[in-house]
Amino acid sequence: MKFYFTYILLCVDNSYYTGMTNDLDRRMTEHQGGKKKSCYTYKKRPLKLVWYIQCTNPSEAIKIEKQIKGWTRRKKKALIDEK
Q1: pTM of the predicted model as reported, rounded to 2 decimal places
Q2: Where residue 71 falls among pLDDT bands split at 50, 70, 90?
Q3: Cys-Cys link to 9, which of 24, 38, 47, 77 (CB 3.0-4.6 A)?
């Protein structure tokens, strides 16, 4: 079975980044390595994975990602603190 992850990173500037991937370890390595200079996280490293959820359906993971991206910082922090 294939899994998909929606995740939240805490950036060095104290901002949050929300993303979705099918390989969380690989994606974290890409973020930490600064694979693309145009990415939001490039100048905000080091990053810390503070929350994630595993899904079996990519559509569900994308839906959750979009929902979280629309949230306020306060609501994201509340989600992270529930962990």
Answers
A1: 0.95
A2: very high
A3: 47
